[in-house]
Design brief:
Length: 74
């Protein structure tokens, strides 16, 4: 499946799990998720850079695992 998304007017939301001032920030686009069934994700330090796009189901599984502490932290 090949989907072309126009992300030029997308409203990006910074993850509440991003580390703030340390520059390790991830943003996602929930409005696209609702409309297209995929979740674009980008590095907030490089807003003009590429976005990775995940199926909603994969993004939901990932964010649930983060909330449940299933990933090791330094």
């Amino acid at each position: 499946m090949n989907i072309t998304l126009d992300l030029s007017r997308t409203e990006w939301v910074k993850s509440t799990y991003s580390s703030g001032d340390e520059g390790e920030c991830v943003e996602f686009a929930p409005d696209i998720a609702a409309a297209a069934g995929v979740v674009p994700v980008r590095d907030s330090k490089h807003p003009a850079g590429p976005a990775l796009v995940f199926p909603v189901e994969a993004w939901t599984s990932f964010t649930s695992a983060v909330r449940n502490g299933e990933f090791p932290t330094p």
